[in-house]
């Protein structure tokens, strides 16, 4: 069951999450160098939605932090920034590259991380007006290409177990059976806790 059935909106949560991930990447940039993002997306309306966005933001950050060491991936982001005429088509190519093997919760988190990184790079090359464009392009791509998949897969509430697995460091150093058990227990525990908190 998607979040829509709980009075929460998967669309609102997704757009707020994009904004949170971008703001997290820009947190160390002087505020006068960053254009305001608030009027561009609708903020979440309930405490439950805020908690979900906050938890998802942490998981996206962990997944993104793991990608910082991937030089090929970082070079691809740098290449987009260095291209003259950074426009929607270029962003869409990057987004489609992220999902060329199909849509997963982890790849959605990666796309949001890419948006945050692109926003930071644009500020660093003195094109802060591009931050608002990146936010809007990511939101548009999310609504047009990912939102229906999210709803079909139970909404954001069902993303937690998959994102918990994706954000666990060092799983490969454990035996596969132990890792499976650990991941299963973590996913069930996290999902149960979130469901319990949302029903209170």
UniProtKB/TrEMBL annotation:
Domain of life per record: Eukaryota
Gene3D superfamilies named in the record: Blc2-like
Keywords for the protein's UniProt record, in alphabetical order: Apoptosis, Membrane, Transmembrane, Transmembrane helix
Alphabetical list of SMART domains matching this protein: BCL
Bcl-2 Bcl-2 homology region 1-3 domain mapped to chain residues: 60-156
InterPro entries: Bcl-2-like_sf, Bcl-2_BH1-3, Bcl-2_fam, Bcl2-like
UniProt keyword Transmembrane, yes or no: yes
One GO CC term on file: mitochondrial outer membrane
Pfam family, one: Bcl-2
Transmembrane segments: 177-196
An example Gene Ontology biological process: regulation of apoptotic process
GO molecular function: BH domain binding; channel activity
Coiled coil regions in record: none
The UniProt record lists the keyword Transmembrane: yes
PANTHER family documented for this protein: APOPTOSIS REGULATOR BAX, BCL-2 RELATED
Family per similarity comment: Belongs to the Bcl-2 family.
Protein's name according to its UniProt entry: Potassium voltage-gated channel subfamily C member 1-like
Native species: Cynoglossus semilaevis
